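A common beginner's mistake is to predict each chain separately and then try to dock the pieces by hand. The better habit, illustrated here, is to supply every component at once so that their relative placement is modeled jointly.
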Amino acid sequence: MKNKMKRKISESLELPKEVIMNVPYIRILGNDELQIENHKGIVEYSSDIVRLKSSIGIIKIEGKDFLIKEINPETVVLTGKIKNLEFISI
Amino acid sequence: MGRDQEFLDGYLIVELNSFCIEKFINLAYNNGIKLWDIKRKDLITAQFKISSDDFKKIKKVAKNTKSKIKIVQKKGLGFYVYKVLRRKLFILGIIVFIFILYYLSNLIWIIDIRGNKNISNDEIVKALYKNGIKIGVMKNKLDLKQIESNIVNEIKQISLISLSIDGVKLNVEVVERTLPPEIVDTESPVDIIAKKDGVVTKIFCYRGTPLIKSGEYVKKGQILITGDIFRTNRDDNSKEYVKTIHSLGNVYAKIWYEIFEEQELVYNKSERTGNYIKNEYMIINGKKVYINKNDAKFENYDKIENRTKINLLGYNIPIEKVEEKIYELKVTKVNYSIDEAIEIATNKAEQEIKKQIPKDATILDKKYDKIIEKNKVKVRLLIITEENISYEQHR
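With all components supplied together, the output reads:
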């Protein structure tokens, strides 16, 4: 992954921050959809709690009726009633 | 949204039994397998959707994580079609439906006639019917060009007819011909003969030689004016034949019409009482099958039958439906006085005689003779008319 990032940076300087800084980019739509780019895998997944690994530590989402709409190496799209978002740094 | 594409490709709903669901998901997407709508049910079970192509790959992942997978449901067009195709009766229904639709679209349902001013639609429809075109006929059996020329020959007022089929509609375009006035061929030999027996009153001879004189009695078929022309020699008064022409002329004659009518003084008069019985039955292969039968009978009755042939899809099937109405009659004896009887007989006679007299005849005289007998009255009606009795006969 690191090699890939470096190559991308060398290609162009007009890159979005989250890529250069290698941090997750989190978007929340209302309280029922959450999208995380630049994640590094799921640590825990249940209908109440989701924990995701990222470069800045673990992202913990609490809520109800979670459903992973989409998952691929870059993005996770999560739906459900979101109550709490917590960053746990290592 | 991308969901429609997934429906077309087909996808599976899979249930996963594993102690490390998170590991399974991470492994799956890192291997390039697309999962969506992942739902955790309880500690060890989760449900997700996967495209049917990726299912083989996910088996390996399941083996590595020591988890069990089970297909809950197959969704998508491919699976749906497969499911539908297994229902034989449904497929049969579709085939029958398509066949019926195809069959019905091969029939003519509408006949649209345009361009006719003087010729009635009925006349054209009749001509079409003669040539095998009616509503409900198969359109691919028709030879339109042949029918067009047939109709032009049959109806002389039509100079051009064009038939075209537009789906289930037959378009008939008519161009009318204005007929030239009838030209009398003056060269063809024609005699004028008598239509009826009578005494000649007037002779108007325009061409030809009259053979009769006024006051002469002529018989039906007798030559009145001949087309032969003669030249009279002054020396010996002999006649010399010249040539035969188309004779023209009108001959009027007195004609007698005579009719007898009688009327009995005591007369059985029957009237409908208003009571009636209605029977309905079908005739199938000559056998009567009653639908509605009434056993009551009348002493005197009128029976009226109404037959209708049953049509099925434009074909006549040998089944007839008959509606029968039996009216009760009441017979009463009526006594007429002599005057009344004469009047009835006279009216009857006049009605009868009117049928025989042509409309252009002028009535010269009318005579009634009355004969009174024991229990009946006789009337003799005589009418003398003057009418044109000439009739052109070609030789």
